[in-house]
Amino acid sequence: MQDIHLASASERLSSSLPLLVGISSNALSIIQLAKENFGNEVYPISRCLIERIITFYYIQYCSDSEFQNYMDYSHQKTFRKLSGLIKINEKEFSIEYQRKIDLNDFPELKNAVEKFTSKKSKKIITRWSNTSLEQKLSVIDLSNKINIYPLMIALQAIYDDGSEALHGTIYGCLFHFGAFEPGVSYKKRSDMCDQHRKNLTMIFFIFCCLLSELNIYIAKNCSLTDILKLAESTYDQIKHTMNLCSMKS
Q: 64: closest CA among 6, 115, 112?
């Protein structure tokens, strides 16, 4: 059961500003990569963009304990980076910050570090939430404030391929050319280029929907009337285009 929301909506929205900066940076990076025909490289950043948008919405409506985990994780992560050790067989490499920090001098940081340290194994907990993306979408959907269908489409059409590209599978290196589609055999370079353009068109269309809805959400919650009118007009044009494409297909 979700906790009572003690954190104010304005606090959560203001805490999300770094996410909005990251989302903007992702979108600009995708445009630049697409212009230079780096189709495969678009997917990992698209995966990042999708997850950031979901996280943005999720921390507006999740439980207070989950929201606090989100904030505490980043604080303790900075401390963790001050030292580290990796061992592979007989080889090891360590990093150690020159200035020693006594956690007892920083009670809030100490609590955050303890929160993300396993009580049994004493190993570092490397994620701020154990909630899956689908579960996060469920919380977002229950708010009745966001249309989650574009996010569902993005997860199905883009996110998994972005993960494959990150993980370095053969599929992840070649899928954007349609290399593993059953019964497909490209004989000309132009055929692969056509597939590349189709992929990018799909990605751009989905993100137009996602970012337009995000603009509308922010404009409504920040009382930005002029931007809200522009965002709603843009999204209406996108939906009109989508309906035309559906009729043609």
A: 6
Q: How far apart are the first and last CA of the chain?
A: 43
H or E element at residue 96: strand 91-96
> In DSSP terms, which residues pair with 12 in a beta bridge?
none
Q: Which two tokens stand for residue 190?
A: 């132009």
Distance from chain centroid for Cα 219: 21
Read off the DSSP letter of residue 180.
Answer: T
pLDDT tens digits for range 222-232: 776 666 666 66
How does strand 91-96 pair with strand 83-88?
A: antiparallel
**Cα gap 129→58, rounded to integer Å:** 11
Encoded tokens for 140 = 């977002």
Task: Give the chain's length.
Answer: 249
As a whole number of angstroms, the distance between CA 52 and CA 154 comes to: 12
- Paired tokens of 212: 């337009």
Sign, Cα dihedral of 226, 229, 234, 237: negative
State both tokens at 155: 């997860």
Report the C-alpha gap between 204 and 168 in whole angstroms.
Answer: 24
Can you tell me the distance from the alpha carbon of 170 to that of 88, in angstroms, rounded to the nearest whole number? Answer: 25
**pLDDT, tens digit, for every residue of 17-31?**
999 999 999 999 999
